[in-house]
Amino acid sequence: MSGNSTLVEHEAPEKLLAQRGLFAGPSQIVSEDLYAEISQGIADRERHRLVVHPHATVSMNTYFGRFPATYWQRWCVSGEVELSLTLTGSGTVSIVASDAEGETRTIVAEQVSGADARVVTMSAKIDKFTDGGALWFDVVTGEHQLVVEDPRWTVAPPKKVRPTAIVICTFNRVEDCLNTMAALASDPEPLSLVDAVYVVDQGSDPVESRPRFAEVAAALGEKLRYIRQPNLGGAGGFTRGLYEVMEVDHAEHANVLFMDDDVLCEPEIVVRTTAFANRTAQPVIVGGQMLYLLHPNHLHVGAEYANLDTLAPGQVVEGALHDADLTGYDEETGKRNVQDRRVDAGYNGWWSCLIPSEIVKAVGYPLPLFFQWDDIEYGYRARAHGFATVTLPGAGVWHADFHWKDWDDWHRYFNLRNALVTSALHSQFDPKRICRSMAAQLATYLVGMQYGLAATQLKAIEDFLKGPEVLRDGGVQAAADIRKLRAEYPETVKHPASEVPGISSGDLPLISAPPAPRLFAPVLAKRVVNQLLGRSVHDVGAVAAGDSAWWHVSLFNTAVVTDASQEGVRVRRRDRELAIRLGKQGTKLLKELYQRAPEMQRAYRDAMDELTSRENWRRLYDL
């Protein structure tokens, strides 16, 4: 099932479908209010059909119901959008617009009486949305009901339509991957816009080994390209898709849409991201947004950037929604939590993200970072070459909530090491700022009795200082080494809350945290001194995940801390000698980082072209 696909530009349709109006989601766990809001009366919402009972009002001013006009005006060449709907019954449909402040205005309205599957079209100029605003439609009924079917927002097509390949990267998440593949296969219209679906399987438990694979493969048909390869992390899996597409003849103008294996997939994302990419004035990375899988009404972030000077990813762009309930209302304004103001992203996560082939040709392939920061580095490298990233509202998938993943994990090594690499490549790489930030981090880990996390950080710095050679194998050895290292530290192990080793549950009071200190440095210094002198406030106690900040945990001799996943607990025990040893090792490493920062920056920049070359990835794939 591997081999070259046909990825040629298609003849343009009469109208380019920009997005569909959907009234319900792809799963029963998803609220219909994300699609269509019943603001008065009664209505029945199905995926492609809305029945509005008499004396009712339904608004599509919702996350999936809005057409993001401000993004289309800023980035695309389309000056007008047309809405078509099939109506049966009586009522009024109106197109409504908002501005950057969320103020609304009606653009056009159409009243029907006794319609029988009548197709109604209305259009709106995309001309007053530079700073913000969206379009949507509202439905109002009087004495009779109105059935609305298959709403479609369309724009004028380009001369040729770009082909699209989807790339799903997977590692031992067989059922998740099959669910994502099945979701894409289940919706014929988005699937018709896709020329190839690459499934890059890097696991020891192959997706193709399940009986269900044959059924899903048959549904995807000749579009499926199933590839097995060694585990090179997310970077190696997604890059394989780029590698394959760039090999196809006539794929100079192709879209490559990355999709995580463990998302709840909304197939509509294919329609919206590919249409947008087909109409941008210049190639841009088109990012899908992430909604929380455990809390499906919540948006992770409207747009984000990384602070490369302090190695901090996931910074919220000013004015962007963050951890927002999309079915809720702003307490101050009383308005729906929607993104009216246009916000520009620094990068987009690869849970779902479209990269045009022209960008790959201009900037090279991703770095072999294994995973973590590979998407950030690529976004900033593209930006340096003049290619922006657009995080497109209304194009979303559901992905596991980030704050339900514990920070103290083996992946933290890649987060830190790759942050240093990215900062060296794309910032001034000021050693004073970086070392100050990392020293503060290390101190909080040590006083919080997270010795394994401290060792993880030091290993990341140590390996960064080895230079670009550390990336030669794509991260395979580093992934094995960090797991082995962390196994030496007992507090990295998760235990069932009912069976905490060495502690009687009757002697484990739950102790709440005091308020966060107003002055960070003096409190941290005080905790360090007290621990060196063997002083503590509590001998042993339980600490909730939400109370597990260093300023609280550092008051204990032994703290049983709930893991962020809520699946168990970690036991942190004070070890003065170990803290001193790690502190001394950290001081030495940070001094070396401070002194060698300019040298390391030159080394990584000099190696960049070779590391991101097709030849390097061919070697890593052993092709």
Number of helices: 16
Termini separation: 17 Å
Number of strands: 25
Strand content: 25-35%
The unreliable regions are none
Structure explained in plain terms:
With 623 residues, the chain is an alpha+beta fold. Among the domains are: 16-154, Jelly Rolls (Sandwich); 411-578, no CATH class. The chain contains 16 helices and 25 strands. Helix 5 (233-247) packs across helix 16, helix 10 runs antiparallel to helix 11 (451-464) and helix 10 (431-447) packs antiparallel against helix 15. It is globular, with a radius of gyration of 26 Å. The two termini are 17 Å apart. One of its GO terms (molecular function) is glycosyltransferase activity. Residues 435-622 form the Galactofuranosyltransferase-2 C-terminal domain. Residues 43-154 form the Galactofuranosyltransferase GlfT2 N-terminal domain.
Brief write-up:
By secondary structure, the protein is of the alpha+beta class. Helix content is 32%, strand content 26%.
Keywords:
623 residues, alpha+beta, Jelly Rolls, nine-stranded antiparallel beta sheet, seven-stranded mixed beta sheet, 16 helices, 25 strands, 32% helix, 26% strand
Write the layout of secondary structure elements.
Layout: E1 10-11, E2 16-20, E3 37-40, E4 43-45, E5 49-52, E6 57-59, H1 69-75, E7 80-98, E8 104-125, E9 135-140, E10 146-155, E11 160-161, E12 164-170, H2 174-186, H3 188-192, E13 196-201, H4 211-220, E14 224-228, H5 233-247, E15 255-260, H6 268-279, E16 285-292, E17 298-301, E18 304-307, E19 312-316, E20 322-325, E21 352-356, H7 357-363, H8 374-384, E22 389-399, H9 411-426, H10 431-447, H11 451-464, H12 476-486, H13 520-532, E23 538-543, H14 550-553, E24 556-562, E25 569-573, H15 576-611, H16 614-621
Parallel strand pairs: 12-13, 12-15, 13-14, 16-22, 23-24
Antiparallel strand pairs: 1-11, 2-10, 3-6, 4-5, 5-10, 6-9, 7-8, 7-9, 7-10, 15-21, 16-21, 17-20, 18-19, 24-25
Helix pairs in contact: 2-4, 5-16, 8-9, 9-11, 10-11, 10-13, 10-15, 11-15
